[in-house]
């Protein structure tokens, strides 16, 4: 009898299928590795089982009985626990209270602390006896915090624990301990679904591996016989749609931006690169590999604590985005809605916001100048809208991104930092943005492009550096294959940076 | 498995030093004043400081509950006036003092509950909801009193503000009993722990089955009740209910909480810290007077102390942070 059985589970967001017809069963005491590229549907699948989102179609059965979860509380009651990447502890509370959150034992009106501590200690003992019970969890590093979440899952008598990339921010040693704990849970009859990008881990700990791609289950393998290469082939799968290849950069082109041994504590270290005039340098790597942080640090939005940044061969210190902008270095951030656009303002204002100091006269910004600037960008970027005075959020994703790009292009960029420039954008607009990036490069802009979409990387980048755990693990020329990139990004024997450490 | 020790203990020891900074600062402040002024350390003066701090402390205790949930209560000063007016008005019209006292407490508690309803049922940000109540409470008081104070209150009632048990003034006793009960509630009841959980991570608390709405209703109601208690003690001290009583009290109450080191972001802090915060403000007022500091400079000094206290707190957050 299966503990959990999914049949035909389907979920769409705004008409776009993110899960299509998923069948999956989990047996008691089984460890299943769930793998797939970014956007393959792993997180959505977890959310469906956790009661956080409702499937549009399909059936969820527990102990072969069909169930409908109205919310996370129902899933918890059914014995399903999820340990999300964003840990859901109360940071100011200690381990005891976090483990027993919502079910503190009491004696009369008062909390029975003695029983509470004994209970919490009991759940933690087998996992990690060293964790102090009375220290606020924010003073612990990620590893112990994760164990506290696992203890909470056990305290709720969970029979099935989903772990969403639990090792993403753990050091190698902590990862080993976590894998031991997963094995220990299995021996106690608890089932674990383990989501990871790191194929070695999945192969090491799981009994069975399920591969998702584009919202479909594309493979189910026994861990004893599966190989890394099998998994990568299934994950990448499709024959690649190469949207053309990047035009070559003349060897004589001078270096515009150079990083030497750049580092930021806990995020990335020892990163060196050169971008030449007209070149697109790709940044590949998994989510959390340090790509966004690197771009933000170059832009002055995060501090750099080591290394040198050179612009046109001269060392520069960029301490704030304003300084970067003055140098002609611009960032198109990862999260368009929250970081790229001022949501409450109009299209015109969003285009002009970075140009205000240039347009202003004695601190006043003439409306006419703003409108001229906005109209020019709307025309050149082919932004489709009713009027430049409409709210920027009323545009489609692709047109919003063109607004962000237009803001910088009005200022004649020397270096453009692009962080996931086509995320959440439909195919048509994507092609236009690809063309725009190529045009900018051929006009001599140096571009750093960070993207999780491998086809995009291969279509645009003249060269790519691959980051893993904040360290550059390799450089690939144009024409590299997706498999090569994935090998490096998920790969093996590289000294890891210890991430997520506190204190 | 030493997983837990990794990177945690060193940070803890540095933190605890800063954590107790507020208590150390309080002791140092008192020692300095004792040296600077011969009057400061006399028992009469110390009881005087405690007496003068007591009403602000009561409001600050309620404020602590609210701020622990990452909220704010700007209406406490107006609720002081409401409770005093209701209690005073009833006494003047011949109602027995215990009944009048109870009515005043109930009035403040109900308006505090109304704050909670505005914040939870209508999802009005606490700043706005309680700002509105600040205005409503003051207006209701003016309407009820016709803008005139109620005087000639029951002398037994006035003992609440003016009497003492042995050497200890009754308002100080009220303050000490309240801090004890509040500490017990926050530290040792499920409700109290839920206050911290909600302030620390409301989503995690909700997913863990904590009834967040009830917790929020609770803290605003408690703040209303303690404001009313403060208002009645004040009325008794002055032997009259003033329609302008409590004007601006919310600022001193917030200052006491913040100086004590309770985080405006919620989830962190304690009632004992608030007591120390209120006493620091009281000692400062008293000390500046004893030292004959220009009264116009005193608010500047008070403001500077608030900035320093919160600045130190931010420093602590950074040490504990990344």
Can you characterise this structure?
The complex is a heterodimer of chains A (about 500) and B (about 325). With about 500 residues, chain A is α/β, with parallel strands linked by helices. Chain A has three domains: about 5-235, P-loop containing nucleotide triphosphate hydrolases (Rossmann fold, 3-Layer(aba) Sandwich); about 245-330 and about 415-503, 3-Layer(aba) Sandwich (Rossmann fold), CATH 3.40.50.300; about 340-410, no CATH class. Chain A is about 35% helix and about 25% strand. In chain A, strands 6-9-10-3-11-12 form a six-stranded mixed β-sheet, with helices on both faces. In chain A, helix 16 (about 425-440) links the parallel strand 19 and strand 20 (about 445-450). The longest helix of chain A has 16 residues, at about 170-185. Mean pLDDT of chain A is about 85; it is low at about 490-503. With about 325 residues, chain B is mostly helical. Chain B has one domain: ABC transporter involved in vitamin B12 uptake, BtuC, CATH 1.10.3470. Helix content of chain B is about 75%, strand content about 0%. In chain B, the strands form two sheets. Chain B has a two-stranded antiparallel sheet with strand order 1-4. A two-stranded antiparallel ribbon of chain B has the order 2-3. In chain B, a hairpin with a 2-residue loop joins strand 2 and strand 3 (about 170). In chain B, helix 4 packs across helix 11 and helix 5 runs antiparallel to helix 6. Residues about 1-10 of chain B have low confidence and may be disordered. The interface of A and B includes residues 101, 104 and 135 of A.
